[in-house]
Each structure stands twice: as structure tokens, then as C-alpha cells.
Amino acid sequence: MKTLPFSCCLAALVMPAHAASLVVEAEQFSAKGGWGTDTEFIESMGSPYLIAHGLGVPVADAETSVNIPEAGHYRVWVRTIDWSKRLGREGGAGRFQVVVDGKPLPVELGKGNADWSWQSAGEADLKAGNAKLALHDLTGFDGRADAVILSSDPSFTPPDKCAIADRTAWALPGTLTTEDHSDTYDLVVIGGGYGGLGSAIAAARMGCKVALIQNRSVLGGNGSSEVRVWANGTMPANEYKLADIIQEVTDHAKDCPAPAEAFEDAKKERIVRAEPNITLLLDHHAYGLEMQGPAIAAVKVLDIPHGKVSKIRGKLFADCTGHGFIGEWADADRQMLAKGRMGMSNMWSWENTAGPQSFPEQPWMLPFTQKSFPYPQRNHAEWFWESGFDDHPINDLEATRDWNLAASYSAWNAIKNHGAYAARDPQGHANARLTWLAFIGGPRETQQLLGDVILSDKDVDDKTPFPDGCVLTTWSIDLHYPNTTYKDLPNHPFISKAVFRASVDRKIGYPIPYRSFYSRNVPNLFMAGRNISVTHEALGTVRVMNTIGMMGVAVGRAAAVCKAYDCLPRDVYEKHLEAAKALWRMPGTQRFQDGSELRKAAEAPPQS
Fold first, then answer.
1. Which pLDDT score, from 0 to 100, does residue 608 have?
2. 311 forms bridges with which residues in the sheet?
3. For position 116, what pLDDT does the model report?
4. Ramachandran category for residue 266: left, alpha or beta (phi over 0 → left; psi -120 to 50 → alpha)
5. Contact 346, 442 (CB under 8 A)
6. Which residues of 228-259 are buried (b: 16+ CB within 10 A; e: fewer)?
7. Are 457 and 479 in contact (CB under 8 A)?
8. What pairs with residue 534 in β-bridges?
9. CA 93-493-477 angle, 5° bins
């Protein structure tokens, strides 16, 4: 059995242990105050981190207690970044300080270094025992803290290698610990968006033992309160009942973005937790795999708030990450456009209040005018605030998000402080206040994991019939490109336009083949989401959330066929397609306890 590490993992780091050195992972602070946890860029920078996303108002301190092993003179480092400098903008947008036992250390962190690195925060004389550690935000503009190291060892230097797999080898108190999960699941679903929800619920109701891994604290992915993309894709009545479960979990938001409550995060979690066959692992990040030959044996996960790593073993796996990470780590056949992909959106909202509101202009903000961006009508900036088209969709993703943040803040600065679009508001926006800006982005395209069928736009245009056609896609082919009307950032366009091709009848739909939902060379890997086996053009029709959710239901019920007949995803098509179709026809409330019960129902003659 061989182990495939996290894609950025370097050789294990061995550090000399020292009693007077310790590490504190920022995401494990006991009280996070106004800081949020960011998990979206672990594959590029190595770890979850805390972010001070205050929309220009400094957030409340994150605080925790640490056990100082012995009295001494301690040096303190924080792994952080000057995100605005990485964009070529001076001024240190996200500055903050470390506070030890109520005393701020002298160095302002988060400025000066355009790469993630350990920055000295200062020094402090500490007594043995408990000390109070705090992160004190100075700007409200997205300062970041990955981890804090304290050491009284004059020869100590912080580690260079900081991926999750490396951290397990740090010989420091406070480093990641390992725990064992003895269970083996019938289906391990990685990703808690609509595809993951459909896969997990459908498989569980068919009698499969399911683990659902989600690296956020809420379910829904792009269709959650964190990103706020309303669920699109109609679900017309048809032979297969794949829409039933998704109609249970889908949101009914009336706008995009809409208020947080419109995305019904609690409802999604409640429905999942009601399934006794699902083990829900929120705030768990998959970072690598254990392989057995060409098949996946286990997924390595980090329990984010508790700092524990473990393996989740399974017979079948479903890559619902959107990015296709599980397939990539398993060396699945895959393809990624070099340039010209659709990008990632970070939407935002504002409101008018009863009195004047200020917004702090900063030197790193872009000198936008009214001609630089479209007016955020209906008090929000919509899906077309999008960038990253030619940047790498994994390695450059954090910078893509940061361009979105910088563009949004700069547009609001132009509105508030420079009179942009003043005629559109009775008070000239004097009473306007920025209320929300997503720091979790909504990506549209990364890479495609290849199955036995690679669905193309020609298939959709020609209505190519497939014997395993099942999930109805009803969204027209919709591809996004930079909107050249707005030219202030020619190398990093941040406003997009949608180009539609009316290839699909939304009242009828076009059936996507099941063979696009499993890997052609990793034998126990399913996929449901924007990373399925389609071309770039065909992605334009299948990528909306209700459609993705139905993919998940098809996958979950196919996983039940695999369990019942002791077979693999390809065998479902080659040997048991009629059994799968029988399950796809059953209502979403249908349940089975075991494989014999399921086989009996799947093999029963159709009712006339």
C-alpha cells in the first residue's frame, strides 16, 4: 500500500524538540472574536487561517490561553502575508498585532512581505503557566494569521515547510495530533455543496453507511450563506425522481446575493443530521489520500478546530470538491484549460441608513472612478464581480479572491469618498454602508475529471442520446468572459459578462450520461459537481446547483447499487444499469435497510 501526500507536501520536517518552544494554530484559538476561519486556499498556502474581515472596521480580538512551559524571554513569530503587496499595492491592507497578557507586541504584522512567511511579532518575558494570547486587528481589511510560534531558545528558527503533512512532523508542543477512525464507510463524500448533499442523502437512504466531509461549518457550498449564489437549474418532471431530494434541501432565495437567511443553512444541516446512516464531519478538510493500487483506500482529513489529523476509510469515494482535488491526488485522468476558464466571484451588499456613514480610504485601494465598474443596483454587486480567468485556479486562487476584495473595496471607496454614481442615490450615498462582502469565493471552473463519456457541447446541441442519460440539465450553455467595458485592471479583469447559447429547453432538459459521473481510471471514484467529465463548453450548462444536486442523487443511488451487487461504478453501467434506473425512478423518500432488500426492489418487474 502506498501513500499519496497532499499535493504541495514536501519531505517531512524534523525539528529539534525544545521545552521552551510551542506553536498555536490560529484557527484553534478558543475565542475567535470577529475573526473568521478561511479554508479555501489550503492547497496553495498550506493551512487554514484566521482572517479579520471587518469591511474596514477593526474586528474584535481573537483570544486563547497558552501554557508556557518555563519562564523565559520569548521571541514570537506569526505566519502571515501582506496580501495587498502581493497585488502590487503598497500600504499593508491587513495589519494586526499580537497581544501577550494584555501587552501589545511592537511589530505591526501583515505588511511588507508579499508571500506567506513567518514574521517576527516581537519579544516578551513570560512566566511559566498560562498566558493570554490575542490577535488584535488594526484595519478591518482582511489581516491573516496562520499560526503563532513562541520560543525562548535563541537558536530556534520557524519551519520552512508548512503544509498539513509537514506540520504533523513538527516536534513542538501544540502541533497537530493524530487520531484513528476505525470505521470503514460504504461511501465517503468529500465536499458539502449540492453535489455532496445529494450524494450523501441518496446513498444513506438506500442503506449505505456514509461519511460526508465538509471543510466549512455550513453546508451548501456556493449555495450557502457564505457565498450566496441562488440555486439555479429547473427540475422538470421526468422518468427519474432525482429532483426529489434536492427539492428538500434547495434554497428559495429571491436574489443573488440575498440575505443570509434565504440560503437556509440550518435546514440543510438538519436534513443531513436526520439521516442515521450519515456521519457528518463539518470543519474537516481533506488534504491527501491513501491508495491501494489504483483505488482509493482512505482520505486524510484535518479536524480544523481541534488540530487532529486522521484517515477516513471507504469502499467508494465521491469527489464533490468542485476543484477535483480527490481525483487529482489519486492521479485520475483529468484536463484543465491553460487559459480562458471561467473565474471566481465574491459578491457584496450595501444599505442606506438613517444617518451619515464613513468608509476609510486606504493607500492600497485602486483609484477607481465611475467608469471603472458598474453601479451595484438593488443594493448589491452581483455574480459578474468575477476574476481569475487566466490565473491558475488553485495556485493563484487566493490572489484571485484578493483582487476581488481590492476591486470591491476600491469601488465602494469611489462611491463613498469620490462621488461615483452620486446621482443614483438621494443622499449621494452619504448614508450608505457596506454590509457584506463574501471572503469565501464562488469558483466556476477548475479542472475536469474524465469518465467513460466526456460530454461536449456538440452532444448537448445535437441532443445525442445516451442509454445512461439520467440527470436533466436545463441551463443553457452559459460561459463567462472578461467584460472589456471596464479596463482599469487589464491584467486582472474583475467584471465578467455571460455569453449564452440557447442549447437546452428549460422545460424539458437534456439528460447527462451516468458515465460522466465516475473516473475512467480510478476504479472506486465518483464525482458530482462542476468537476465532472465534460468539456469546457459543456460545463456551461451542467454547473448550476440544482443540476449538480441531482448529479449527487444519481451518484448516491449508484453507490447503493455498488454495495448491493459488490461492484464498482463502471460495473453499474456495464452490468447493473437497469437496477440503477430502477432506483433512479424511486421517490426521494424511498429507503432500504440492506442490499438484499434493495436488490429485490431493483429487480422487480416495472409496475404497469
1. 52
2. 300
3. 98
4. alpha
5. yes
6. bbbbbbbbeebebbbbbbbeebbbebeebbbe
7. no
8. 455
9. 130
Helix (H, G, I), strand (E, B) or coil at 348: strand
Q: How many residues does the chain have?
A: 608
Residue 74: is it exposed, middle or buried by C-beta count within 10 angstroms (0-12/13-18/19+)?
buried
Report which DSSP code applies to 259. -
Confirm if 176 and 168 have CB atoms less than 8 A apart.
yes
Within its chain, how far is the Cα of 535 from the centroid? 22
Among 509, 142, 180, 207, which residue's Cα sits nearest to residue 346? 142
Query: Which helix H or strand E contains 499, and what residues bound it?
Result: strand 496-501
As a three-state string, the secondary structure of 50-102 is: EEEECCCCCCCCEEEEEEECCCEEEEEEEEECCHHHHCCCCCCCCCEEEEECC
- Mean pLDDT of successive 10-residue segments in the chain (608 residues)? 39 44 96 98 98 98 96 97 97 97 98 97 96 98 98 95 94 89 93 98 98 98 97 94 98 95 98 98 98 98 96 98 98 96 98 97 97 96 96 97 98 98 97 98 98 98 97 97 94 96 92 98 98 98 98 98 98 98 97 92 79
In order, the DSSP letters of 23-58 are EEEGGG-SB-TTPEEE-TTHHHHSS-EEEEE-TTSP
- Domains, in order of start, for the chain: 2-175 (2.60.120.260), 184-337+448-474+509-602 (3.50.50.60), 344-443 (no CATH)
Question: What's the confidence (pLDDT) of residue 7?
Answer: 37
Residue by residue, what is the 3-state secondary structure of 197-230?
Answer: HHHHHHHHHCCCCEEEEECCCCCCHHHCCCCCCC
pLDDT in the model for residue 595: 86
pLDDT at 306: 95
